[in-house]
Amino acid sequence: MKTIIAAYSGVLRGTGSSILSALQDLPSAPWLSRSKVERHLQMISVMQWVLTFLIMGIACTVALMYLFWTDLWLIAATYTAWLIFDWNTPKQGGRRSSWVRNWTVWRYFRDYFPVRVSDFEM
Questions:
Q1: Gyration radius of the chain over CA positions
Q2: Residues 23, 8: contact at Cβ < 8 Å?
Q3: Which of 56, 67, 70, 113 registers the highest number of CB atoms within 10 A of its CB?
Q4: Sign of the dihedral defined by the CA atoms of residues 97, 99, 105, 107, in that order
Q5: Cα separation, 97 vs 58, whole angstroms
Q6: How far is it, in rounded angstroms, from Cα 75 to Cα 64?
Q7: In the Cβ-directed half-sphere of 117, how many Cα atoms lie within 13 Å?
Q8: Whole-angstrom Cα distance, residue 13 to residue 2?
């Protein structure tokens, strides 16, 4: 970290040090190992999903109810009509989006839960 600060502030001017070279040396820092970064990213991805699952439903419902009592009630009514019309879509397989399915967060989410399939005979 000192190297980054020194390179940014120009203290190491003339030694060939720059922010880019300091950032390239950063992964060799003992406090920032790749496994620790991976583990933190895994925990962040799981927490993001849990908080989204718990909070977004309530927050969006409250926002929808609020919109009904404002001048934007038409947007809330249109969304409610679409919600009723589209109610059975999850039962029919939903809408798969390759863009969402390829997000990196799902790889970290998967790696947080170390489940392995093993073959064995009984």
A1: 24
A2: no
A3: 67
A4: positive
A5: 24
A6: 9
A7: 0
A8: 14
